[in-house]
Amino acid sequence: MATEPQTAAGQRPVEALAAKLRRRQVVGSRETALETVLVLRQVVTKARFQNINQLVEIIRSVGQKLIEAQPKEHTVGNTVRKLLHHVREEYNNASKGEATTSASSFSIANFVLQGQPRRQAAGQKAESTLVLKEDDSDDPDSFARTLKPVVMEAIQDILDELETVYDNIAKSAKDHIHSDEIILTIGRSKTVETYLKSAAHYHKFTVIVVESGPSYGGHDMACSLSSSGVSTFLVPDSSIYALMSRVSKVILGAHTILANGGMFAVTGSVLTATAARAHSTPVMVCAGQFKLTPLWNLYHEYGALDFADPGSVLGFEECDLVDKVDVVNPYYDYVRPDLVDVYVTNDGDHPPPSIYRLVKESYDDEDNEF
Amino acid sequence: MNTLYSNSTVVPSGNANPINDHDDAGERGFDVYRAYQRALADEDISPPLAAIHSLTELVTSSNAGTMFELVRALNDGAETLKKRVPNPIGLTAGCELFIGFVTLFPHESASFSELKREIVHQGKSYTSQAIKFRTKIAELALGFIKDDSVILTHSYSRVVTQALLHAHTRKRISVYVTEARPRGLGLKTYGLLTAAGIPCTVVLDSAVAYVMDQVDFVLVGSEAVVESGGLINAVGSNQMAIIAKAENKPFYALAESYKFHRLFPLSQHDLPTHNSGILSFPHSMNRSATTQTRASPRLTDDVPDGSASASLPQRTMTLEQMNRNPDVDYTRPDLISLVFSDVGVLTPEGVSQYLVGMFAGL
């Protein structure tokens, strides 16, 4: 009766997004997250399931498929994890009535787990009125019928969060940036851009944008900022250190925030953060919660997460050289947690050491690996 | 080498010699200390678990009729254990966990004896469960060990050894282990790892800085992980962490969750094992006569005269000099990269959160 997970993953929207991810037609952490939510919504709408395990399996299989297609876009996995977390939460809320906490569930091992990070009572909704009947043979759809609206609501919540993420992060901008400050940022990050523009409503300050070669995202960033009236300088990457002594704050964007408090960010970020450390300049990172990833940086210290087209470093017009040298164009840097002072997210400001807690609160441990 | 230490300690964590003679018969004929020793005799049982085990037995034999009496009996039992063991840190963590658990245990049973039976059952099932924690930690640690890693470890720790042996089945690793004077337990690790075919070399405690630039990361066990997120472990761990920090090498600690200890030491002096005798300077001549201290015990350049150390080779400390040295030291949380525990991979800050959560209801 129920949709086989394999077929769920094989559905057209899933296949289409997987192909787009593979071909790099959808890039960027927010874009991919948005696309993933939309696909999940379609899948859940059509899905047929009789119990929670089937539903979880369907969502997981979609996640697996998409992650396989593009393992470097971590927000895809994060979005799926988040949905699974919400589904389980709704399910547990609804079925709470039956399984009361009895002494048998109170063991020393659970006692230790009382210290586990969890969402505070804010997430607790008023007493759920759902009556869930699992594996009802008379009416196989009854479970899906009752749970689906709640799941759709959860999906809508995730979608809303993604859509409002920039504005929510930017809310605190006026408190973090003060008049006459000199802010340094690198490359183009939509989050940082919105953040700076929002702060510009309240204060007059100067932004130094580092161009971040060879992608030169800084050029767009500088144009966008200056067109909205922020006093902006565009500087080459090589002058980061020289300028740092004048800078009062460094604001960076992130591609992915890792559980250890480190992050992947556009190339040049490590250079900037290290220069900032040498001058004891505070480093702030603006990022949405959907970028939190339950991964520990293991061995990315030297290499990049992803490599971009080497043609922008050394083109084929230099044909004599192309044969003789290896050209790499790493796209991301790994920034160690001790180089970052604070993460400004849509869920408040957090120091790097407490990122792992946010990660544990947002996702279930069993979903860390698909 | 081994003969040098074989007489000093028998039980792995050094809680062997009952220094205090005073004999508390314990709860009505039940000797909690003997139960503790019995539990420790099992090579796989560490002090916190042995403490939980012995307290569980105490509940069985206790004839307390109310919760208040039971908790008082448990507290007394824990006190007795702490007094009779030279290094009570690990044990205290176990006692705290069990007593905290009993205090918050829901009173749903029909009678008090029923409740006690339930508590005993919980205690027993936990100790049998907890044995498997090391397997889980070994599995977690495996993700952090890449092929061809060079790992530095300190002294002997069951969980570290298990993690390394487990990693050896899947990855190529080589291990440096410190000798860990004065008990030389590093040689035990060396023996176990070499027997399993892991390339392993013993390093002098004083050569840690020398070897640090060749290692990928440091992996140590722990006696307890405290509320600040810091670590209490065999002496030498602190300097190892400081050197690792100086060389920017990750310093990982492995700790089962029953080693989380509600203690907030600010310096070495705050450790429960610290006493005024540790690293004290010799008293003036006339007072030292009573304590049998030689005139300049810190400079035994020549062959030590017979008495306590006849079997010791030249240029080693006398037993008395060793006794003036600490067994364990405290490593600050900012030196520790991550704590691997059966409840997951935690940052040092995460440990304090667990502790606060566990004991919030008390």
TrEMBL record, chain A:
| Protein name in the entry | Translation initiation factor eIF2B subunit beta
**Where does it primarily localize?**
cytoplasm
Q: Name one GO cellular component term.
A: cytosol
Q: Where in the cell is it found?
A: Cytoplasm, Cytosol
Q: Which SUPFAM superfamilies match?
A: NagB/RpiA/CoA transferase-like
Keywords of the record: Cytoplasm, Initiation factor, Protein biosynthesis, Transferase
Give the signal peptide range: none
- Tell me the classification of the organism that encodes this protein: Eukaryota, Fungi, Dikarya, Basidiomycota, Agaricomycotina
**Xref: InterPro entries:** eIF2B_beta_subunit, IF-2B-related, IF_2B-like_C, NagB/RpiA_transferase-like
A single Pfam family it belongs to is IF-2B
Q: How does it assemble?
A: Component of the translation initiation factor 2B (eIF2B) complex which is a heterodecamer of two sets of five different subunits: alpha, beta, gamma, delta and epsilon. Subunits alpha, beta and delta comprise a regulatory subcomplex and subunits epsilon and gamma comprise a catalytic subcomplex. Within the complex, the hexameric regulatory complex resides at the center, with the two heterodimeric catalytic subcomplexes bound on opposite sides.
The entry's family comment says: Belongs to the eIF-2B alpha/beta/delta subunits family.
Q: Organism source for this protein?
A: Lactarius akahatsu
One molecular function GO term is: transferase activity
Automatic annotation (TrEMBL), chain B:
Q: Where is the composition biased (Polar residues)?
A: 1-18, 286-295
- Tell me the keywords, alphabetical order: Cytoplasm, Initiation factor, Protein biosynthesis, Transferase
**Compartments, record wording:** Cytoplasm, Cytosol
Checking InterPro entries in the record gives: eIF2B_alpha/beta/delta (IPR051501), elF-2B_alpha_N (IPR042528), IF-2B-related (IPR000649), IF_2B-like_C (IPR042529), NagB/RpiA_transferase-like (IPR037171)
Specify the domain of life of the species encoding this protein.
Eukaryota
Q: Which GO terms describe its molecular function?
A: guanyl-nucleotide exchange factor activity; transferase activity; translation initiation factor activity
Please list where the region (Disordered) is annotated: 1-25, 286-312
Q: Name one Pfam family in it.
A: IF-2B
Say if the entry is tagged with keyword Transferase: yes
What's an example GO cellular component term for this entry?
cytosol
Presence of keyword Cytoplasm = yes
The UniProt similarity line reads: Belongs to the eIF-2B alpha/beta/delta subunits family.
The UniProt subunit note reads as follows: Component of the translation initiation factor 2B (eIF2B) complex which is a heterodecamer of two sets of five different subunits: alpha, beta, gamma, delta and epsilon. Subunits alpha, beta and delta comprise a regulatory subcomplex and subunits epsilon and gamma comprise a catalytic subcomplex. Within the complex, the hexameric regulatory complex resides at the center, with the two heterodimeric catalytic subcomplexes bound on opposite sides.
- Tell me the protein's name: Translation initiation factor eIF2B subunit alpha
What species is this protein from?
A: Lactarius akahatsu
